[in-house]
Amino acid sequence: MFDILFVMIFGLSGRVLTKDTDTKGRFSSPVLDVTEKQLIIERNQTLQLNCRGRWELHWVLPSGIPKVYHGTQIEETGCGKKNNQYCSRLTLSPALAQHTGSYRCRYRQKQRKQASVYVYVTDSQQPFVKVQSEIPDVVYMKEGEPLVFPCRVTNPDAKVSLVKESVSSFHFHRLVPDYTNIIWNSRQGFTIRSPTFFYIGLFSCETIVNGVKYSNKFLTHRQVNKILDVYLNSTGLVHTLQGQMLALNCTVTAEWNTRVSISWTYPQKANGSANIIRRISKSRTKILFYSVLTIPRLSKADRGLYKCHVASGPSKRETNTTVIVYDQPFIRLKHRDGPVVQASAGQKSFRLTPKLRAFPAPEVIWLKDGMVAAEQCSRYHVNGFSLVIRDVAEEDAGIYTILTGIQQYGLYQNLTLKLVVNVKPQIGEKTVSSQQPGTVQRGSRQALHCTSHGVPPPQIQWLWHPCPPKGLSPARLA
């Protein structure tokens, strides 16, 4: 048989409740049937609390009580002289050490209005509320925030020590509460208001009951929120075909002790079309986090913007790429500036570049007058799908053909264009006769020859100047 502890005050309208039940604001907050701030009961006893208020009531129980616990019973009834009030009775039987905590009664619709009591369920064999496994709990040390070792106890009078342990030896350091930086509270545990690097390591809360030592162990972790870099395996446009697989790898580089959260947004996220795999690798100086998004078979609905979001505490970064999905492979090839293009002899370089759109990327071969261009002259080389001619000469003129093909899909397309190389006009004979004027017989027929070359062919114009009179030079005549 369990012992039963009834915690009730009969006659809720009596003197104890007069402070909270004035005529104007009667039951503005719920009222419990206990006036103490805390209760102490023993393990296996029955806890019973009564609450009254103006509106519908709701109980908030300690986290140690499961949502579904056979020992929890709540009875709700109408009460008051006109039956216009709400009463709720909470019964917990048997009460166990892990049920230690704050019990709150509040209005269901006005959650800020509440009444509470802290209940200790003492157990000589379980002085700490939480029973640990052999693995220490991790507590996180955050910059600018207090560090809490949550070793709550089941007895408010328990004597508890905080001990820093050495992982590599049997040495330990016992810390004494000074209530300035190190504060002990039986409902919370130890709080370090301004933690330093000293508090990184293995700690334990210790107490002795009937000669037996009990402890809760904690491993502190100083979390860093330093994201160094975020990048995708493809930062430009991603071109792909319908039905093919898409794989995007988001890589995050961060400092040691940094923990990151990686998430994706993409066109078909609502349908869950992507599979996401995560992994971590570490080096001596940094940590690499990988998140790989895979879509096994792409559809046109999968085209659009893909974003990788990275967060570590207040630090946030993101990167993105755009995926273009084509129905089928294709080649589209046409002239850029017409079928005839012109260059000038002596030009440092000239590029033959037709308009080409294709997917997947085609193989490209350039011909000059029916022969592979790059094999004819060392001044010719293919850059992407353009043919570059260095140090343009007259002999570079001719018929050029670009051959494009995607052998995998049996797609081929050719385009021919004519290159005209313009050459500046040059006169082959600077004079039409000897350097000094010759004498010919008056009335005789003479032939003067002028040889010139250029592309396009130059126009020749003859100019005649009369001879100066004897004894006068052309300069004096001028």
Automatic annotation (TrEMBL):
<dbReference type="InterPro" id="IPR009135">
    <property type="entry name" value="VEGFR1_rcpt"/>
</dbReference>
<feature type="domain" description="Ig-like">
    <location>
        <begin position="425"/>
        <end position="463"/>
    </location>
</feature>
<dbReference type="GO" id="GO:0005021">
    <property type="term" value="F:vascular endothelial growth factor receptor activity"/>
</dbReference>
<dbReference type="Pfam" id="PF21339">
    <property type="entry name" value="VEGFR-1-like_Ig-like"/>
</dbReference>
<dbReference type="InterPro" id="IPR042495">
    <property type="entry name" value="PDGFRL"/>
</dbReference>
<dbReference type="InterPro" id="IPR003599">
    <property type="entry name" value="Ig_sub"/>
</dbReference>
<protein>
    <recommendedName>
        <fullName>Platelet-derived growth factor receptor-like protein</fullName>
    </recommendedName>
</protein>
<feature type="domain" description="Ig-like">
    <location>
        <begin position="329"/>
        <end position="401"/>
    </location>
</feature>
<dbReference type="Pfam" id="PF22854">
    <property type="entry name" value="VEGFR1-3_N_Ig-like"/>
</dbReference>
<feature type="domain" description="Ig-like">
    <location>
        <begin position="242"/>
        <end position="324"/>
    </location>
</feature>
<dbReference type="Pfam" id="PF07679">
    <property type="entry name" value="I-set"/>
</dbReference>
<dbReference type="InterPro" id="IPR003598">
    <property type="entry name" value="Ig_sub2"/>
</dbReference>
<comment type="subunit">
    <text>Forms a complex composed of PDGFRL, TNK2 and GRB2.</text>
</comment>
<feature type="signal peptide">
    <location>
        <begin position="1"/>
        <end position="18"/>
    </location>
</feature>
<dbReference type="InterPro" id="IPR007110">
    <property type="entry name" value="Ig-like_dom"/>
</dbReference>
<dbReference type="InterPro" id="IPR013783">
    <property type="entry name" value="Ig-like_fold"/>
</dbReference>
<dbReference type="GO" id="GO:0005524">
    <property type="term" value="F:ATP binding"/>
</dbReference>
<dbReference type="Pfam" id="PF22971">
    <property type="entry name" value="Ig_VEGFR-1-like_5th"/>
</dbReference>
<dbReference type="InterPro" id="IPR055229">
    <property type="entry name" value="VEGFR1-3_5th"/>
</dbReference>
<keyword id="KW-0732">Signal</keyword>
<dbReference type="InterPro" id="IPR013098">
    <property type="entry name" value="Ig_I-set"/>
</dbReference>
<dbReference type="InterPro" id="IPR036179">
    <property type="entry name" value="Ig-like_dom_sf"/>
</dbReference>
<dbReference type="GO" id="GO:0005886">
    <property type="term" value="C:plasma membrane"/>
</dbReference>
<dbReference type="GO" id="GO:0048010">
    <property type="term" value="P:vascular endothelial growth factor receptor signaling pathway"/>
</dbReference>
<dbReference type="InterPro" id="IPR055238">
    <property type="entry name" value="VEGFR1-3_N_Ig-like"/>
</dbReference>
